[in-house]
Amino acid sequence: MHKHTTLHVRTVAAWFFALLLFFPIFWLGLMAFKTEAQAISTPPLLFFSPTLQSFRDVMARDHYIGYALNSLLTSVLSTAIGLAIALPAAYSMAFFPTRGTIGLLKFILSSRYMPGVGALMPIYICYQYFGLLDSWAGLTVMFMLMNLPIMIWLLYTNLRELPREILEAARMDGATVFHEFRHIVLPLSTGGIASTALVCMVWAWNESFWSLNLGAANAGTLAWLIASYSSPEGLFWAKLSAASLMAIAPIMALGWFCQKQLVQGMTFGAVK
Prior knowledge:
Helices cover 76% and strands 1% of the residues. The protein is an all-alpha fold. Strands 1-2 form a two-stranded antiparallel ribbon. Helix 7 runs antiparallel to helix 10 and helix 10 (190-206) crosses helix 14 (259-266). The longest helix is centred in the first third of the chain and has 32 residues, at 64-95.
């Protein structure tokens, strides 16, 4: 009896917190289908005639497709370049460790949590000097650098799980480092690489700080488009909600279909 009561309490608590977390998304969706007048009405309208006008305005006037392509291009390219750098680094640290490997890994991971605003001024000046402001290349490099530390850490913990006996057998058969990496390590760690890529691509897609400070109308991502609805004339709540819903919909759909890989990517090495 006591166990059943505890289970019911936990279930109710879990549903309560789940609904609490989902409520902002629900409210965002509600606002997106209102007119601007309905969106600012007091008290808020729960029953109204839904309209797609805000979505049409975002698509037509604000060139949503262009910003979405910028988000897709910068997130995919930054992830691909990051993997090309992080994989050899993680492989080296996992299978040829030195006395300073763990310390280096901790330093790399700690750099991921450095507040971006602390490095904004020197990075902005460098970008201005090299002409990288408001460019795909500039945002791609920034997103790649932002995710590279966590990418190396996730791949390192994944590669550490590979059975060393297989690698030792391959070395005894004369496999070189390249052949070992190409024909054994890569096929065995495909799941971990895919999970890491998914996690980092989602983070790059959602990145707003660097997109707002280094991007503008030419290379701005969806974060820049959403921020543009805050103007001196006020907030356009319906259009802002429609643009926000269109910005998070693709990544939410990706997260829904790849939730197993995302959870795996974020919990590498957490459970032994």
